[in-house]
Amino acid sequence: MSISCETINELNSKARIIRRHIVEMIAEAGSGHPGGSLSSADIVTALYFHVMNVDPQNPHWPERDRFVLSKGHAAPLLYAVLAEKGFFPKEELLTLRKTGSMLQGHPDMKSTPGLDMTTGSLGQGLSAANGMALAAKLDNKSYRVYVVMGDGELEEGQIWEAAMTSAHYKLDNLTAFVDNNGLQIDGPIQKVMSPENIQEKFKAFGWNVIDIDGHDMKQILEAVEEAKTVKSRPTVIVAKTVKGKGVPFMENQVGWHGKAPSLEQVKEALQSI
Amino acid sequence: MTKIATREAYGEALAEIGEEIKDIVVLDADLSGSTKTAIFAKKYPERFFNIGIAEQDLMGTAAGLATCGKIPFASTFAIFATGRAFEQVRNSICYPKLNVKIAATHAGLTVGEDGATHQSIEDLALMRTLPNMTVINPADAVEAKKAVRAAAAHEGPVYLRFGRLAVETIFEEDSEFEIGKGKILREGNDVAIIATGIMVGEALKAAEILEKSGLKAMVINIHTLKPIDEEIILKAAECGAIVTAEEHTIIGGLGSAVAEVLAEKKPTPMKRIGIKDKFGQSGKPEELLKLYNLTAEDIVKAAKEIKR
Question: Which of these, A24, A162, A229, B232, has the minimum number of CB atoms within 10 Å of its CB?
Fold first, then answer.
């Protein structure tokens, strides 16, 4: 499949809008996780605005593609995408983390239209995605399942239990992303508890592995298309990313994992984006 | 009288209901021979998923299947289902109120020889604390089958507790079963014995012994620990003395559930028969029940003490 420059440009400008929402939402909430939301922004934008077959008017449509944000702390990203896609009014975005909001601190499928799975406790999303992919196989349905994990999240043992399951049941309708931004709360992943070499680990678990630059729309889309052609094996796309991507003063700064920007900083961030 | 383990009844019921409800899928963690899900697996191999020795993934995969309209029964031993995978049950199943049935076998001391590591004596307490969870502990094979059917028909997470030990069948095939409804098995007005699971049989024996010493005991079966049947507990309180009996720690299980109701609505003298805040050990199930004071005689003793 050839991907037009127009498509790439559209997705890039959509991702900028999403990044602006993320910064504004977290500032308004006074807490949240900007770093990991910004690093996954291009991937999730590409999925919802080009790849996935979903219907905002019918969020529970049984044939829809599924998405699981296993790194649930990037919730602001997913909420911004769902609102831009039309699952709920954009005004809701500024209620993030507030009492009574449909936008909980971490994704709650019972509260937010368009959310396919409740996540937030790291390590649990891939298992749920496996369940969805198994259900598709069982019902002979053609929908695909996408899941985004963090690289630090790979330290959770359940991820590797699930990685075995995906390969054992030959879930070729499952595509996983690892947002490889290299940072976790306590510091660089190599220093805290290295999950590397991520590619070799997944290969050893029986997965098809694709390496990309997680901020290059063309590479994201091509990898997703390639994954669709792989039979009998799940695919993991290891996406090299920059934590805080798009906001220069947040980029590669571990301190911006879970901190809200001030009004001054919001201004600066929005200008940069 | 023939003795049947509730896990046997579970396996048979699952295979039966699987024929009627095509959305039922079954997951196990390498214990299908013991949990008896192997019966279903043989009949419906395409709807059975062995997840291997990975209980956290077991619960998460079940949750994912449930989001797509399946009715997953996830089975392993009670200790692993509720202990090892507690947080998966909480965050991936109960919080999103997914339609997963956690059908755990080998609960309680009567696992026997495997010893304390495998004797789940705190599972009812753990599951009872979770919002959206329904907790069911059947007393015999008949009730176990009815519980499986009721759980499948119930929308939302259910914890089903089954045992390894073969136990006497108490109930008639046509007995009624409704989630959340306790049952008076024997009328009496001197003392009420409220029991759950395999202790229901002991409670009935205790009532016969008490009758010989002139005490008329009401016997109540509580198969659903959550939601608890408050009405029947308040009726029991009219006896003025209550003994609870469970094959579980006295912290957080049936005794606690009954005490919570009584403390707020009708304070009544009571005693709890259960495991007194300690771990189990290896041994023959019947010997362990004696050693840990979980017999009809222990119930009788408690009833007499409370009436003194």
Answer: A229
Is B92's CB within 8 Å of A124's CB?
yes
**Token representation of residue B17:** 């209901």
Question: How close B152 comes to chain A (CA, Å)?
Answer: 18
Contacting residues of A for B59, CB less than 8 Å apart: 127
The pLDDT of residue B308: 82
Q: What is the pLDDT of residues A185-212, one digit of tens each?
A: 999 999 999 999 999 999 999 999 999 9
Pick the CATH number of B183-307 from 3.40.50.920, 3.20.20.140, 3.90.1150.10, 3.40.640.10: 3.40.50.920
Locate the domains of chain A by residue range.
5-272
Rounded to 5 degrees, φ, ψ at B174 are: -95, 15
Torsion A13-A177-B102-B39 (CA) sign: positive
pLDDT in tens, A176-185: 999 999 999 9
Cα B125 versus chain centre, distance: 11
SS3 state of residue B216: coil
Q: How far is Cα B8 from Cα B227, in angstroms, rounded to an integer?
A: 25
CB atoms within 10 A of CB A106: 18
Helix and strand counts by DSSP (H, E) for chain A = 10, 7
| Residues of B with catalytic roles | 55
Q: Do domains B3-168 and B183-307 have the same CATH topology?
A: yes
| The CATH number of domain A5-272 is 3.40.47.10 | no
Give the architecture-level CATH label for domain B3-168. 3-Layer(aba) Sandwich (3.40)
From CA B228, how far away is CA B264, in angstroms rounded? Answer: 14
Task: Name the residue among A135, A157, A162 with its Cβ closest to that of B65.
Answer: A135
CA–CA distance, B132 with B95 (Å, rounded to integer): 7
CA distance linking residue A135 with residue A128, whole number of Å: 11
* Residues whose CB falls within 8 Å of the CB of residue A254, separated by 6 or more in sequence, listed in order: A35, A183, A184, A185, A186, A187, A188, A243
CA distances from A166 to A161, A209, A232, B66, B70 (A): 9, 13, 10, 17, 18
Pick from A95, A236, A103, A59: nearest CA to A160: A236
Residue boundaries of the structural domains of chain B: 3-168, 183-307
Give every CB contact of residue B120 below 8 A, 6+ residues apart in sequence. Answer: B77, B78, B79, B82, B83, B104, B106, B107, B108, B111
What average pLDDT does the structure give for chain A? 97
Ranges of chain B with pLDDT below 50: none
Q: Going by C-beta distance under 8 Å and a sequence separation of 6 or more, which residues neighbour residue B257?
A: B128, B222, B225, B226, B228
Instruction: Please write the tens of the pLDDT for every residue from A76-106.
Output: 999 999 999 999 999 999 999 999 999 999 9
Q: CA-nearest residue of chain A to B56? A: A158
Closest CA to A239 of A148, A124, A160: A148
**pLDDT at residue B1, rounded to an integer:** 66
Bridge partners, residue B243, by sequence:
B193, B271
Asked if this assembly's ipTM is beyond 0.95, the reply is yes
